[in-house]
Structure formats: C-alpha cells, structure tokens
Amino acid sequence: MAEVVLKDVMKNYGSLYAVNNVSFAVEHGEFVALVGPSGCGKTTTLNLIAGLIPMSGGDIVIGDRVVNDLDPKDRDIAMVFQNYALYPNKSVFKNLAFPLQMRKLPKAEIEAKVMAAAKVLDISHLLERRPRELSGGQQQRVALGRALVRDPAAFLMDEPLSNLDAKLRVAMRSELKRFHHNLNATVIYVTHDQLEAVTMADKMAVMHGGVLQQYDTPANVFGNPVNTFVASFVGSPAMSLIPLDVVSKGTEVALRSPEEGWELPLSPMNARKASASSNGKLVLGARHSTLKLHKSAAAGAAPGKVYTVEPTGDVTFAQIFVNGAVVNISLDPTVAIEPDEAVWIEFDQDRMHLFDGETTMALKAA
Amino acid sequence: MAAIETAQRPVVRKPIDWWRWAGRVFLTFLMLFTVLPMAWMILTSVKSQFAAMQYPPQWWPSEPTLNNYFKLLDPTNRIGREFLRYFWNSFYVSLLTTILGVVVAVPAAYAFSRFRFPGRTFLFFSVLVRNMFPAVVFLMPLFLLMRWMGLVNTHGSLILTYLTFGLPLSIWLLKGFYDNIPIQLEQAARIDGATRFQAFILIVMPLSSPGIIATSIFSFIGAWNEYVYAYTFLSRDDQMTLPVGIQRFFTEFATDWPGLMSATFLMSVPVVVLFLVLQKYFVRALTEGAVKH
C-alpha cells in the first residue's frame, strides 16, 4: 500500500479541459471518493492515475515514484471497472490468475493466491464458471477478486456498484467498506452517487467541469461546502439555495427578498459574513433538517407556499417555494400541511450557509 | 341440435397468411435454383461420356461410374497430374492470400477501431474506393503494373491482386468485431500487467477469432474462385489455377462433360467443407457475458 499524490494534473482535448489543474494527496490506507455529476472529469482523472490515457500536464506520484511516463502495468495498481471487464473467454479461476501469470509467478503460488482471494470473496465454488454464467453480484466479486489477488499499491474503482440493483448495491457498499478496513488499502473510488461517497470515503474530492471544487472529509464537505455547487451536490435532499439581497441599517444587517420584500435579520456572526458579499447579493443555503416550519408568521421566518408534500414513513419531505426558490424541508409525519398552503420557514442562524451572489463561494466573516 | 353442435365446437378458421405462403414458395424456388445445378453437376460427373451426351437425357445415370474421379486424382496420367497441379496452385495462392490478408487486416482494423489519428476517416473510406468499381476496370492497369514489376506469370501477381480486392471487406468486417469488444477489457489487461501488445494478443485476439475466421473464409473463397485475373496474368500451363485450368476440358473437337463436372465438383469441395466446419463461428455471440449491458 502506498500514497497517491496528484499535482496540477491536466488533461485537455484541444481547448476542452477534461481535467484542469487537479491536485490532491491520498494518504496510505485512505479511502478517497472522486465524486461529481457526469462529465465532471472524475473518470478521466482515474484513467490518468491508472495511466490508461496520457496526461497533458502535471505529476502523479504513487508510492515514492513519479509515474507520469510509466505504463499501466508498471504502476502497481489494480482497477475495478464499472462493467467489470471480466475476460469472457476465461474461467473465473483464469480471470483471477491472469494478473499473477502476467507477473510470472510460479504456478503453485498463483493457485494459492487465487484460492485465498476466492475464499475471502466467497466465490470458491464458482472458479470453473465463465463470467457470463454468473449473476451481477458474482461478477462484481470476481472483478474485485482480480484486483485483490495482487496486493497492489492502490486500488482504483470506477463506479463499481452502479450496475447492481439497489438492494445488492447497499450490501456491497458495506462489504467494500469492510474490505477496505480489513486490508488497510489505499482506494480511489469514482462515483456519481454522493451518498456512496459520503458513506464510504475517508475523504471526498468533489469535481465539477474538470475542476476540483473541494477535497475534505465527508463531514466537512457536508458541513462546510466551499461553494453553492458543492452545497447542492452533497446531501439528499439537496441543500436549498435562496438568492437574496443584503441590506444594512446601521449596525443591523438583514437579508431582503428582492421580489417579495420580506426581510430576515441576521445574527452578528452571519451579519459579518454577509457584509463580505462582493455585490450586495448573496445566496442563503440551508439543509432540510435545520429548518423549522411555522403555520403563522413568526420572528426570523420567511413566508413561503407549499408545493408538494412527500411522506416517506418516518419523515415527511416538503418542497416549499420561498422567494421563487425551492426549499426542501423535513417534517415530522404528524404535521399536516396541504399544497398551496401559506407557511413560514424559520432558519437556524448557527447552521445556515451564506454564499457570495457573484462568485458562489462560501462567505467568511471578515 | 345443429345449433347446439355449433356452439360446442365452434369452427375456428385461421385466416390464411398469404405472405407466409408467398415466402415459402419463394424459398422453394430459390432452393431449386441453387440445388438443381449442383445435383445435375454431380449426376453428370458419374456418367460415362456417352451417357452424358444422350438425348433425351438420362435423368438418372444407368451405369454410374467413378472413373472420372479416379482419372482426376491419379497422378500417373497426364490429366490427373495437371488437375492436381492446378488444385495445388489454387490452394497455395488462396492460402497465402488468406494468411497475408489476415496479417494485414487484423492490425489495420484494430487501429481503425481503437486509435484516433489524423486522416483516419479519409483512410477508412478510401479503402472502400476499390469496391466502387467492377474488378475488370482494374484489369489493364494492374496488368501493366505487374509487368512493370516483373510479376507477370508469377503467383505473386495474383496474391497481390486478390489482397487488393479482399482487404477492404476484411478490414471493414473486422473493425465491426473490434468495435464490439469493450475497450475496458484491454485496459483491465494492461493494468493486470500486460503490455498493449500482450493485451491485444491474449485478450482481444481470442475474442475476435470468429471475425478472423469469417474474414479468412471470405478471402479464401474469393481467391479460390477468381478467374479473370488468373487468366490474364498467367500464361504458363504449370502455373494455372483451377478455374482457368478446368477450361482445358473444352478441347477443339469435343467437351469431356463428365470430366469437367467431376473436376468442378472436386473444386467446390474445399469451399463447402470450410463452410460446414466453421459456420458456427459466424453465429457465435461475440462478447456475451463480458460486460453487463
């Protein structure tokens, strides 16, 4: 196992930058999730680490070697693909043995290692089968096994769970996490599913448009998103974002709805943040669980109108229009509200997020 | 009573599906069209020269004989010696054409399928240009070219010509096969420790073997049956290929029909055998189970 370091990594196709100046360091034994919407450059980044496509610029270090010009085979990595990429003409045993044969290990050792990996993954009874004779979950295990037999410096995984059905995906998620725990393996894991990233990873790298937005622990990414993109991407339901104006009256600072005219006074801490706004506009962000619903006007609450109500059993989600923006809120299932009902939303001053209206970056108290 | 009976056994009359019947009639005609000449060829080949010329014809040979075949396959007489030589020439030319064709088409098709290089589309469509013209159009230019290169009266001229004609189809066919093999398989192999070349040889080649076999059969048959170029480029007797050599059964005074028919039958044997043995590769699903779709 080893650390993996990316420094100013670039990949461009003409004027299109698929990966733009991405730098981050994965420490030994860390599980890092590369996450972002489709086309954000996360898979390209993984392929650059694997050496499957040439870099346009920057450095990649695996262990203590700069691997920029090394072939994939010399980088000492293992990869699990989204479509598993099992060799269809080989039995499961031969699929698992292939990486070892390529490294010219003695036959007895190959057999011992394959058996050991098969036992860990509970696929010992499948060794003589062909990949097409396996179920999706079993194929997934074989793909994992092929990465596992080799004890590589780092595991790269490209959406390994996205082809499984929902139930199996949750089960495999726990197993992957356990597998990482047992092996103390360095894992770089690409997913578009922020929930997978939050639940499994030690750190997550949120990417958008080829640019790394934030690289931090899931708790920090969730708690202190650096900009509105990260804020709306991580967490489900998404963080609600309401664009508002900043108004100052003497020492008091408040937020005003440009359309509806209501005002929301800010706490001194938030007031200092809001004053840092570059053009007097900002975006107010709030997670569903920090909001309180009132049926009548209340101090520090903004007026809204109920759009939909979605009971899920133990919690009811509602979407409410506030100043033209959709606000997600979670409610106790006993609260009865109707679509089109007028309600008031109270914001938690300690847990609200303020983003600059122009740069979309999180505002810091000056 | 009658009413009750009808109620108990309702008459179900399926409408006649005229399209289906039209299809069957058409297929029957098609079969007769292809099978009858073959049957007549085989029947004639086991007749004596006299029986073959009788009028009205003998539909079924009264004294079947295999003498014609013995004569053709017996290297001690002149006819047998010549036939076997033509057969060998044809086989040798077709086999070399096939092998060289595969050797060139496989890497070419792979490159067209996997790599993006300047002029790729132009090159890919330009291999098709040859197929836009009938083969005869190239007869004179190629003959002059072969003469200039000193290849007239060599098998090399034929092999080169057949390659020119066979390669475009082979490359297009094989490219389709490679397009269907997920690139992740190669990537996985490369990460598992294979070089790019090893990944191609160990993973991609076995998966594309049905395609390689199919294209081999196409180019073999193309070379095996070709007549015009062989007739033009070769003038020495001992170099003739079968389609040209068989002509020698038409002599000045009479045509040895049974002999011609048995030679034709023997000529069709390798092609039929090739198809029968290898036909399963035409239909075998390529990458079934390789990836989850």
Automatic annotation (TrEMBL), chain A:
PANTHER family from the xrefs?
MALTODEXTRIN IMPORT ATP-BINDING PROTEIN MSMX, OSMOPROTECTIVE COMPOUNDS UPTAKE ATP-BINDING PROTEIN GGTA
ABC transporter domain boundaries: 4-234
Q: List the Gene3D superfamilies hit by this protein, alphabetically.
A: 2.40.50.100, Nucleic acid-binding proteins (2.40.50.140), P-loop containing nucleotide triphosphate hydrolases (3.40.50.300)
Which keywords are on file for this protein? ATP-binding, Nucleotide-binding, Transport
Pfam families, alphabetized:
ABC_tran, TOBE_2
Similarity comment: family membership:
Belongs to the ABC transporter superfamily.
Gene Ontology MF annotations: ATP binding
Give the highest taxon in the source lineage: Bacteria
Write the protein's name.
Sugar ABC transporter ATP-binding protein
- ATP-binding among the record's keywords? yes
The upper taxonomy is: Bacteria, Pseudomonadati, Pseudomonadota, Alphaproteobacteria, Hyphomicrobiales
Origin organism is Devosia nitrariae
